[in-house]
Specification:
- It is a single chain.
- This protein has a seven-stranded antiparallel β-sheet, sandwiched between helices.
- The chain is globular.
- It has 241 residues and is an alpha+beta fold.
- It is built from ten helices and seven strands.
Length: 241
């Protein structure tokens, strides 16, 4: 496992793109934007590992030891070539041992009345990833705090997980506020050219917006579903179909 520090999330994205397109196959990459780094990773471990500021990056290689060591060394060469700082492995080790802790800590937020916490995941090509990230992050204006991390990477692009923390206030219902937040995030994502689900699915929350994302291509999905399920008995009203 290796730990890195990037000046910002955009240079971290470029680092990941270089690794994937140079042929490296890490078992895991995690990029935490500066805000999520500061709020979710241990400040003590960050300091001990030599992290100062920016986006934290963890890269994991597994398999045959000799192969894993070669790929880790190549990742470090790419980091040096692209201005990414190599920091202590304490961060990667801590992340590995505590990577599920945040899911339990989030319950403390949800235990407070009228608080909203949700995850919005999407994907984009490398050429559009920065644009999508900026568009969705801008939604935090007037709504709350939007954290961002990236966790699935490919030769062609990556996914982004956004976590939004917000308070509904006292003048409107939590459901109305929740729907408005999602509407704003989906509008931003579609406008930026993202695909609205990487692997969490579309369901009913994204179903109206998936038609906007797919445009005329939704007709093909409708014909396929109509052929297999002419009476719409299977999971009706999902995926915008």
């Amino acid at each position: 496992m290796r730990s890195f520090q990037a000046e910002d999330v955009y240079s971290a994205m470029e680092f990941a793109r270089n690794m994937m397109q140079d042929g490296l196959r890490p078992s895991a990459i995690r990029i935490y934007d500066p805000l999520e780094t500061s709020l979710t990773l241990s400040s003590e471990v960050l300091e001990k590992s030599g992290y100062e500021a920016g986006a934290a990056v963890v890269v994991v290689f597994e398999g045959l030891r000799a192969l894993a060591e070669v790929e880790a060394a190549e990742a470090e060469k790419i980091a040096e070539r692209t201005g990414i700082k190599i920091i202590g492995d304490e961060l990667a080790t801590h992340w590995w041992n505590h990577r599920y802790d945040i899911s339990y800590k989030q319950q403390l937020i949800l235990s407070h009345e009228r608080m909203i916490l949700d995850t919005f995941e999407l994907a984009a090509t490398w050429s559009n990833l920065t644009n999508v990230y900026k568009a969705v992050k801008s939604v935090n204006v007037g709504f709350g705090v939007v954290l961002g991390h990236l966790s699935h990477f490919y030769h062609t692009g990556a996914n982004i997980y956004f976590t939004l923390v917000s308070h509904a206030g006292i003048k409107r219902s939590s459901i109305e506020h929740y729907d408005d937040v999602w509407d704003a995030m989906l509008r931003a994502a579609v406008g930026a050219g993202a695909t609205l689900s990487h692997h969490h699915g579309v369901g009913s929350l994204k179903r109206d917006w998936i038609r906007k994302e797919k445009g005329q291509w939704i007709n093909i999905f409708e014909r396929i579903k109509g052929g297999f399920d002419p009476e719409s008995r299977f999971n009706p009203d999902k995926m915008g179909l």
